[in-house]
User: Fold Phosphotriesterase from Streptomyces filipinensis.
Amino acid sequence: MVSAVRTVLGDIAPEELGVCDAHDHLFLRSPQLPGQELDDPAAARAELAAFRAAGGAAVVQWTPYGMGRRAADLPELSRTTGVRLVCATGMHQAAHYDAGLLGRLRGAGLAELFVSELTDGVGTSGVRAGLIKVAGGFHALDAHARWTMTAAAEAHHATGAPIAVHLELGTGALDVLDLLCGERGVPGDRVILGHLNRFPDPVVQRQAAASGCWLAFDGPSRAQHATDWRMPEGVHALAEAGFGDRLLLGGDTVVAGARSVDGGPGMPYLLRRVRPRLDAALGADLVDRILTEHPGRAFAADWK
Assistant:
């Protein structure tokens, strides 16, 4: 069986992905972010064009089920901009959903929904998801997180799909791995942990990396989070500890004002500002692998 990355235009070989933003959003809607929705196809097209102009070739969109993915728009955006796109299934924290929807899904089989979107396609769009996105809580896993992660593990075993995890403010990594890998038997290299830059605990990061999982450093820091200047030091320490082959980078644009075409850092920031800082800290060769080879390996699967 040949591993492939499942893009919105079909499966491709991992090495075809190119320079990749391994965690971002073209479309996203949540009651937690009223009035800040990413819901404009023209703006999404412009953002992808700006990313392409900066040297980008692929974007993995982590927007899961029920949060305004606009999956039907993704193939045309990929064709017109030349940027490869990967769509997600999965489910975020309960706060991002209507209680009625959550109630219906609890009785409908969440793992089956994920499997259907990975194999048959999202709704009537025909676009097959290429990863499962779930989320933990702040330093803990509540009942909702355990439910969604258990369903994600079942869907992984049924399809081979990788599982990407939103760590709330970067915390709870070891609890996530205990559940997914320890209790549910997901191989470590099929798990991507996001937002580790927001809680830069070097001990936890090394312990997590020892599981074989992927460590994603994603998004320009906000004022209340660990600031960007600490990230090069942190990833350098991981590389020195022997985990340089487990690293990913992303932009995580979640509100309209954060897009580069709307005056924010947006997707190009990853290549325009983050990459030069990491080149100086890690060397350009390793950063090239983090942006190209690593996403291809992390998001490829032996699809069942």
